[in-house]
Amino acid sequence: MAISENDSRAVEGSRINRLAILQIKQRLDAAGVTFLLLYIPTKEHVYEPLARGRFTDDRHLTALWESERRLKRALQEFCEENGVRFVDSTDALRDAVERRMSPYNDNLEVAIIGADGHPNANGYRAIATAVNEAIARTGVKESNMRTPNESRP
Predict the structure, then answer these.
(1) What pLDDT does 112 receive?
(2) Contact 134/86 with Cβ under 8 angstroms?
(3) pTM of the model as a whole
(4) What's the pLDDT band for 113 if we cut at 50, 70, 90?
(5) Out of 51-55, 81-85, 128-132, which region has the weakest mean confidence (pLDDT)?
(6) How far apart (Å, rounded) are the C-alpha atoms in residues 146 and 153?
(7) Which spans in the chain are helix H?
(8) Which residues are CB-neighbours of 9 under 8 A, at least 6 positions away?
C-alpha cells in the first residue's frame, strides 16, 4: 500500500522523524562526531527496475514506487538543508540484485511480491558497502571514528 503524504499519521511521523534527526545532529555536532543518515529503501523500491516491465499494470505497486520516490526526495532535501549527510543504500541493493545476489530471503523470480522485506546477509553486505563508501567520501579517518559516548583520541 502506498503511503499518502497527506495522511495525518504520515505527516506527524515525518515531523517527529525530522525533529529527531535534528536533535541527533545537534548532539553529534557538539561531540564532534560526523552524522551519516542511512536510508534503507523498501524491497519494492529496490526491485522496481526489475519489476517495471512485469507489473506496469499494477496501479498499487506503481503508486508505491512513486510515493517512496517522493518521500525519499523530501528526506534528502531536508538532510541537505540541515547539513545532514544522506547515505542512500538503494543503488548498492540494486547492484546486488543485478549480480543475482538477492539481498532478501526470496527467490529472485518471486522476490517482488514476497512477504519478507528484511535484508539477508547479502543485503546487509550491500548496505555496509554503501556506508563504507560514504564514510570514505567524508574524509573521516578510521582512527577518528567513535561512538558519541567515547572520548576523543
Answers:
(1) 58
(2) no
(3) 0.81
(4) low
(5) 51-55
(6) 9
(7) 8-31, 43-46, 48-51, 59-81, 90-98, 121-138
(8) none
The pLDDT of residue 31 is 93
Residues 94 and 121 sit within 8 Å (Cβ to Cβ): no
CA pair distance 104, 43, nearest whole angstrom: 8
Pairing status of strand 85-88 against strand 36-39 = parallel
Q: For the packed helices 90-98 and 121-138, what is the interaxial angle rounded to 10 degrees?
A: 130
Task: Tell me the C-alpha distance between 25 and 149, whole Å.
Answer: 14
**Collapsed DSSP state (helix, strand, coil) of residue 119:** strand
Phi, psi of 115 (to 5 degrees): -80, -35
Identify the CA nearest to 67 among candidates 42, 39, 86. 42
The Cα–Cα gap between 25 and 7 comes to 27
Beta bridge partners of 36: 85
* CA-based R_g, the chain, Å: 17
List the Cα angle 147/150/151 in 5-degree steps. 135
DSSP of 77-106:
HHHHHTTPEEEE-HHHHHHHHHTT--SBSS
Any idea how long the chain is? 153
